[in-house]
Amino acid sequence: MQQLIECVPNFSEGNDMHIIQQITTEIEKTDGVKLLNVDPGKATNRTVVTFVGTPDAVIEAAFKAIKKAGELIDMSKQKGEHPRMGATDVCPFIPVSNISMEETAKYATILAKRVGQELNIPVYLYEAAQPKKERANLSIIRAGEYEGFFKKIKQAAWKPDFGPAEFDAKRGGTVIGARDFLVAYNINLNTTSTRRANAIAFDVREAGRVKREGHPLTGKIVTDEAGNPIHIPGSLKAVKAIGWYIEEYGIAQISMNLTNINVTPVHIAFDEVCNKANERGIRVTGSEIVGLIPLKAMLEAGKYFLEKQQRSVGISEKELIKIAVKSMGLDELTPFNPDEKIIEYILRNKKDTRLVNMTLTEFADETAGESPAPGGGSISAYMGTLGVSLGIMVANLSSHKKGWDEQWKFFSDWAAKGQAIKKEILALVDEDTKSFNNIMEAFALPKDSDDEKRHRKEAIQVATRYATLTPFQIMKTCYSSMELIKEMVEKGNPNSVTDAAVGALCARSAVIGAFMNVRINAVGLHDKEWAEKLIREGNEIQTQAIAKELEIIRLTNQKIDAAK
Length: 564
Prior knowledge:
alpha+beta; globular; Formiminotransferase-cyclodeaminase, Chain B, domain 1; 52% helix; single chain; 3 domains; 564 residues; Alpha-Beta Plaits; 4-stranded antiparallel sheet; 17 helices
C-alpha cells in the first residue's frame, strides 16, 4: 500500500502570480507528487499551496519550492496582514494514507535538515516534528514575526534547529513540521440566525465559551483570581467553530475546523452538532466538506452510521461512501463527487487499475486477445476475488437474516475482513499483468556494450523476482479467504451454503493457478536458494488450500443432505 503525505506550504506572496507560478511549477514538475490547490490571498499577501505524494517525492518538491521562493521573494519588502517570518513561512507535512504521524515527522525533519544545510536558511521544527514541547507551537515560534526575527535568532533559547543562527534579511526563516490533517467542515442549519448558530458552535468547540453570570450572552463575565475570564469548554476536542450566515444559500452554518480527525472525526462532529441543535429547537439539514478529505475519514463515517443501524459494515468502498454522504447530507448544497473530494481518488493512476475497471465482457475479450497478458496470474487473482466475494455475500445476507438479529456484529466483522482481502486480491489482478510487462521491458533493453548487457541482465532478474513474488502473494491472500468461506458454510445463512462452497472452489483454483506462475517464473531466477525456498512455501500453501477445499465441500454436502 502506497504511503501518502500531504504538504501545505505557505509562501509570503499573494499578489504576483508570476512569482507564485514559478514556485508551483517546481512542485508540478516533481515526479511522484500532484498539485491539488493554489490559494493566493491579496490582503494577507500569502499563498497556501497543497500537494500530495509519496514521502521522498514530497520532500523533493517541497525543497525545490522553498529554494525557488527564497530566490524570488524579498522579505525586506514584503507586507501583509497575516503573521509571517519567512519567504516560505511554514511547511507542514500531514499523514494521509498508510503512514503514521511519527514517520511523517521524521520525513519533515529530513526536509528541515536539508533546507538548513543546503540552502542555509534558519529552520525551526514544529508540532509533531519538534522534540522540545516549549517550541512546538507555531504561534510561539513566529512571535515577533519577521521584524523581530533578527533579535530573536541571536537568543540561545531560539537557536534554529537547522541552518545558521543568523538573520537572513531576504529569505527570513522557515518553520517545518508535521501535524494532523485539518478538515474544513460546515454544517447547515434550518435557521438564518447567526446568533443561534454561534451558540451551537460555542457548545461544541473545544474552546467553548466565556462563563457569565445570569444570561449566557449578556451576563457579567466570570473571572479567576488573576482576573482572567473563565471558560466553559465545549464538548468536542480538536475542534474550532463559529456560526455564520451564508447569503448564497439563505441559511446559517456552523463553520468548523477539525484539527485532528483522529480525535474528533467528521461523523462525530456531525452527530454532536445535531444533538446540540436539537436542544435549541434547530435542525441540521446537511453539511459540506470544504476542500479535500482522506478516504479513511469517509469510510469510517459510513461504517459508523451502518453500525448505528446494526447493519453490516462489510460492503464496498463505494457503498460506504454513499452511506456517509447521505447520512451527513454532504450533497445538500452541491453534489459530492468522490473523485474530486477524496484525496486518494484524486491521486489514483487509472493505468494501475485498467483491468479491474473493465466490464466483464471487456475483460474476457482482453484475455482472449493475442497479447500474452493478462494471463494465468491475473485470472487466478480474479478467481480469488470472486471466491472471497461469495463469502462476503453470505456474511452480509446472514447479518440481516430474520431471527438472527443478535448475530449481526459477528457476520459484519467477517464481511469487513472479507472486504479487506477482496481489495488486496483485486489490486493483484492488474499487478500480475504489470509484473509480466516489466519482464518484457527488461528483455527489450539495449545489449550492445558490456555495461548495457550487465544492466539488462540485472533488470531481468529484478523483474523476474517481482513477477515470482506477485503470484506468490496471490496464493497467500486467496488462501486466507478460505477461513471466511468455511465460517460461512458452517454458520452462515443455510440458504446460501452452496454459494460459499463455490467461493471455496474459486479460492482453491486461484491458489493452484498462481502457484503454477510462481514455479514457471522461478525457473529464470539465478538465486536458486531463494527460489527453492519460495517454492517450498508455495507448495505448502497449495496443499493446505486443497485440504481446506475438501473440508468445505464435505461440510457443504452435509448441509445439503440435512436439508432433504
